[in-house]
Write a structure and sequence with these properties.
With about 160 residues, the protein is mainly alpha-helical. It is built from 5 helices and no strands. The longest helix is centred in the N-terminal third of the chain and has 34 residues. The protein is globular, with a radius of gyration of 19 Å. It starts with 7 loop residues before the first helix and ends with a helix. The mean pLDDT is about 90.
């Protein structure tokens, strides 16, 4: 396409941007829901409910959209990559506790900053099989700016 057209890569990036925004919104809503459920049930019952219902949705999606081999999990290398569910339980617990202590907005800001910092470190050092990225002052400056934004948001 010409200069006025949109190429496939631009559409893919716009789709990724939209999906990321939905993900952030869903994470915030889920965190609030889980925190409210925890007030009645306790943190581990709430966390377990989250994991069990997520499994049920995944099972239904797997059943209706295609049947990738479950046995393929035995071929995943390195093996520690299979700890995503364990990490998910930790994420649910930490989100519940942080929202209960700080409220949804402050909690979300700190969570996003931690995600940015850890993601940048993973990319910078090429950890966990990710492609290594060169150091960028611009990205570091963006992270510092985000931390400054939290300080401003917290300022009363």
């Amino acid at each position: 396409m010409g200069k006025a057209g949109i190429n496939c890569m631009e559409v893919w990036k716009m789709t990724g941007l939209f999906i990321a925004l939905i993900s952030g919104a869903l994470m915030s809503i889920q965190g609030v829901f889980n925190t409210q459920v925890t007030k009645t049930t306790g943190v581990w019952v709430s966390n377990g409910w989250v994991q069990i219902t997520a499994f049920a949705v995944c099972l239904a999606a797997w059943f209706f959209t295609g049947r990738d081999s479950v046995a393929a999990l035995t071929k995943v290398e390195p093996r520690y990559m299979l700890l995503g569910g364990v990490i998910g339980a930790g994420i649910t617990w930490t989100v519940i506790k942080s929202i209960a202590a700080l409220g949804p907005a402050r909690s979300a800001l700190l969570i996003v900053i931690a995600q940015l910092a850890v993601s940048y470190i993973i990319a910078l050092f090429g950890l966990f099989g990710m492609d290594r990225e060169p150091f960028s002052w611009r990205k570091l400056g963006g992270l510092v700016l985000a931390v400054a934004g939290i300080a401003i948001f917290q300022w009363e």
